Amino acid sequence: MQAKRMASAIPRIYGAALIVTVAVLMVPACSDVPGENIDTVETYEKASGSAGKNGKALDTKDFWAQDLTTNGFYSFKADLLAEGERCNVWVEQASMKYISDIATANKIAAEYDKNIYDKMIAAFSIDGVQVELSDGNVMEGNIMEAADWLTDGNGKLTILLLDIKDGYTANGSYVAGYFTPVNFYMYNSGSSTRSNEMDMIYLDTYPSKQESAESYTILAHEMQHLMNFVTTLVKRNDQTGIMMMDTWIDEGLSSAAEYVYMGSHVKERYDWFNDDRRGTIAKGNNFFVWGNLADDSILDDYATVYLFFQWLRIHQDSGKNIYKDIITSTSHDYNAVVNAAHKNISWYNDKSWSGLLEAWLAANYINAESGKYGYKNDSMLKNVKAKTAPAVDNLPLLPGEAVYSITSNNGDTSSYASGSGSNIRYAGLKKGDEGTVSPSSTYSGGALLTYNANSDCGGSKETGKLTGRAETASVWQSVLQLGMSGAAERGPVRIDARDMLARNGLPMETEALTRNIAPLQNAVLTGNSTGE
């Protein structure tokens, strides 16, 4: 949608206090590069007027970035190597050794302009967002245009390539990219945070590899985080404060952005779920309480949230866009998801979190070729298979967590209720053409689903009962062996920046910023949206 000026004056929103979080992506490397059929770099440079002239930078300036090992901010010089239609690509001078040449920056700009931008706008953006500028004019456009007007107003996203300070060592964990709302705030020399006052995304140069499907997927992932933040300003802002979306929803939408961009599945997510290398998914760990376990078990969250948001997409009615209805919701929590599901999935009609959660959990075990208890025979996800828990009688489960145990005969689920937590629910599962799920009965040769239906992701653990029967011991032994060998052979592991901060003994959130968002003191944010 083309931005347009509107002459009418509108009410103003003043600065809102918020907790700043750093959102980040973990993605696998892929062999094929989406968008390789775009114009050649030379053709693109000629059309856009971009390219470092005579092999030199177009501009040089100082930037601020966050040190994830200290939670502090540091400055450095970066060069503008590519100027696209909708983005500028800057490279930290110290990272030039990781960037092959100026053509690399131009390919990134071309991929963003020609491929990523339109797909992300179609999937996630509100149209008709209004922003009043300091000169009294009112601009109207999409979410990315609004992000620009609220910051530097240059009409382009800043993509900054740098070696993110994350403490990376060989085969260790690192941060592949991040977005932070700090840059929507006015620079304040008296604050411990530092703003660049621009709409921007940070991409890692080492050990990440630029000019690859991986780097482009990171960009799409982080772009959703930026869009989510600005959409929060539009839809979840009461003019006294804003309510950021729960981490699992924000990360779920960013995992969905990976698929939106690539048009194919992120195999690493599927593989991590099925392999369950730590054995922690089988014991209940999933996305709803984000980052509750240390080490690489954070990958459980990314694997399970990816599957959940793919399951939602697969089951949406023809012609619907459940992702847009989630991101544009006025709710910040599970209600955003259940309201969007109720609107977009015809068989889901009760608007309960427990009902939606139970259906997805059952789908991971039954995975029928048709019906709601599966992935509709998706070429890759038809092979999703949830593992049973170890042979124990009970396990503590956080909200959203679930386990499966083998049932050897027909019975009554109520027999497990005694001694269970108040939010613990049970269902009998039986595989078949579309699968069977019963809240009251168990089945011979089936499984007992035990899950915590508490919709408060800040809730406590509750005891859930199991049958005490698991799959063969050899299966569990292979899980343990995978966990041991996987740590030694895994190579670099991409983790969330929040988790990186926590590993370094630092707060998972930076200070609450109470200054006005520049130039929000001169803006009203409203937009056309069907989100509830």
Describe this structure in words.
It is a single chain. With 532 residues, this protein is α+β, with helices and mostly antiparallel strands. The chain has two domains: 270 residues, no CATH class; 199 residues, no CATH class. Helix content is 30%, strand content 18%. The strands form seven sheets. The protein has a seven-stranded mixed beta sheet. A four-stranded antiparallel beta sheet has the order 14-19-16-17, with helices on one face. A hairpin with a 3-residue loop joins strand 5 and strand 6. It starts with a strand and ends in a 19-residue tail after the last strand.
Topology summary:
Layout: E1 4-6, E2 18-19, E3 23-24, H1 41-48, E4 59-67, E5 72-83, E6 87-92, H2 102-124, E7 129-132, E8 138-141, H3 143-149, E9 157-162, E10 173-174, E11 177-179, E12 200-204, H4 213-235, H5 247-262, H6 267-275, H7 298-315, H8 322-327, H9 334-344, H10 353-366, E13 394-397, E14 402-407, E15 411-412, E16 424-430, E17 436-438, E18 441-442, E19 446-452, E20 462-465, H11 473-489, E21 493-494, H12 497-503, E22 512-513
Parallel strand pairs: 6-9, 9-12, 10-21
Antiparallel strand pairs: 1-8, 2-22, 3-11, 4-5, 5-6, 7-8, 11-12, 13-20, 14-19, 15-18, 16-17, 16-19
Helix pairs in contact: 2-4, 3-4, 4-5, 5-7, 6-7
